[in-house]
Amino acid sequence: MRLDRIGVDESVAAVFPPARLVDRLADATDEAGVDVTAVDGSPDALADCDAVVTLEHRETYLDLSWVHSIQAGVDRFPRERLREGNVVLTNSTGIHGDAVGETVAGFVLALARRIHEYAAAQTDSEWTRPDWDEAWTVAGERACVVGIGGLGRGIVDRLTGLGLDVDGVRRTPVPEPGVDRVYTTDRLREVIGDARFVVLAVPLTDATRGSIGRDELAAMDDEAYLINVARGGVVDQSALVAALRDDEIAGAALDVFETEPLPADSPLWDLEDVIVSPHCAAYTRDYYRHVSEIVTESVRRIADGDEPVNRVV
């Protein structure tokens, strides 16, 4: 693969200023003779580019040699068409574990310690304490992390640090440090029944789409909470709303949704013990630095005739 110019697409502005990544990559790849520039995805802007770093997919990318996603998930990219066009697709797996893990820890603590209620009461200048038996401590509780890859690893570390016992679900029952028991996906309903927190950290694929539906929610304890930092499509959102309304589960903390932004008329905004966050669990001021490190290493590998980091296609 020849690599003379890399474009940084304007879509990354949803996460960090494109200029920050342009400047950092330009400094890091200068020795390799690679030019880095900001682009808007148009054919003219991409005319001299061999590669692009992006959040969104654009049809114009099918004419490039390499597309790098700043996210770990690549469900928005047409992998088969990229493969047919000999376009290499890479992702940013491995950089989100710390931020997402801390976000999940925050959700767990907020729900147990009732912090979300105090924040809501503050907007109305209300001095409201919880009932004597509402707040509780998380040490000794059990969490089930569904998907113990890069994201799941960061979540496991934070939850065990808080004193929770952690089970995990993955395709193969390979042991994982810090995880008491690892189950295969066919035993999902069995393992989530024992958990106070069910945390979703899987990519969106044909196999995971809608994998948390009515039956899975019914298998959860009625005092359990669902935390989703994966993709909205992993959960049947209508079934989730019904389970919350019928008190089949205690609540939820949701960073991702079937439709984003979450529509103003969604019942999830107003349901009790539901925390809504705007798909920002991975956000950190160091995001662009982490992406730069991956892309820079890939540039070095490509120059040496090797595979780039985190190749998906």
Automatic annotation (TrEMBL):
Full protein name: D-2-hydroxyacid dehydrogenase
Domain D-isomer specific 2-hydroxyacid dehydrogenase catalytic: 53-312
Keywords: NAD, Oxidoreductase
Keyword Flavoprotein: no
One Pfam family, short name: 2-Hacid_dh
This protein's record includes keyword Chloroplast: no
PANTHER family reported for this sequence: 2-HACID_DH_C DOMAIN-CONTAINING PROTEIN (PTHR43333), D-ISOMER SPECIFIC 2-HYDROXYACID DEHYDROGENASE NAD-BINDING DOMAIN-CONTAINING PROTEIN (PTHR43333:SF1)
Residues of the D-isomer specific 2-hydroxyacid dehydrogenase NAD-binding domain: 106-281
Gene Ontology molecular function: any one: NAD binding
InterPro entries, per the entry: D-isomer_2_OHA_DH_cat_dom, D-isomer_DH_NAD-bd, Dhydh_Halo, NAD(P)-bd_dom_sf
Family: Belongs to the D-isomer specific 2-hydroxyacid dehydrogenase family.
